[in-house]
């Protein structure tokens, strides 16, 4: 679930100067289920983590919720918007690809509904 990425050219844009871990939750119609505050609290507690949410063509208020999170914490939350639903696998793949382009050292995917608690991330990092 976590992939180590070697440093890439410094010409590529970084998502945060100290971010070594980018976590990619794919989101489709998650407005009523996405625990936005839990993600923000977790990201704020750790210096080197960023969440890159991929909105997979949601038809509800998911994109607005994600944009709100990004606006309030731009150093911890990024949003990749896919206007059309492309499926979870493709959304996660594109999010992971984007994470590699922005020089994340580690990239992971996560379920937006937190079926696996965020605290579990620590287990993957040790």
Automatic annotation (TrEMBL):
Q: Some GO term, biological process aspect, for this entry: which one?
A: protein N-linked glycosylation
Pfam families associated with the record: Glycos_transf_2
Ranges of residues in domain Glycosyltransferase 2-like: 47-122
InterPro entries named among the record's database cross-references: Glyco_trans_2-like, Nucleotide-diphossugar_trans
The record's listing under PANTHER family reads: DOLICHYL-PHOSPHATE BETA-GLUCOSYLTRANSFERASE, GLYCOSYL TRANSFERASE
What protein does this entry describe?
Answer: Glycosyltransferase 2-like domain-containing protein
Lineage of this protein's species?
A: Eukaryota, Viridiplantae, Chlorophyta, Pyramimonadophyceae, Pyramimonadales
């Amino acid at each position: 679930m976590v992939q180590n990425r070697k440093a890439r050219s410094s010409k590529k844009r970084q998502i945060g100067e100290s971010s070594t871990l980018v976590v990619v939750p794919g989101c489709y119609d998650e407005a009523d289920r996405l625990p936005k505050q839990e993600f923000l609290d977790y990201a704020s507690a750790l210096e080197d983590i960023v969440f890159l949410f991929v909105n997979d063509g949601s038809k509800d208020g998911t994109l607005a919720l994600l944009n709100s999170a990004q606006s309030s914490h731009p150093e911890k939350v990024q949003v990749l918007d896919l206007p059309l639903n492309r499926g979870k696998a493709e959304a996660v793949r594109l999010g992971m690809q984007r994470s590699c382009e922005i020089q994340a050292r580690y990239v992971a995917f996560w379920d937006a509904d937190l079926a696996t608690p965020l605290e579990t991330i620590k287990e993957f990092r040790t």
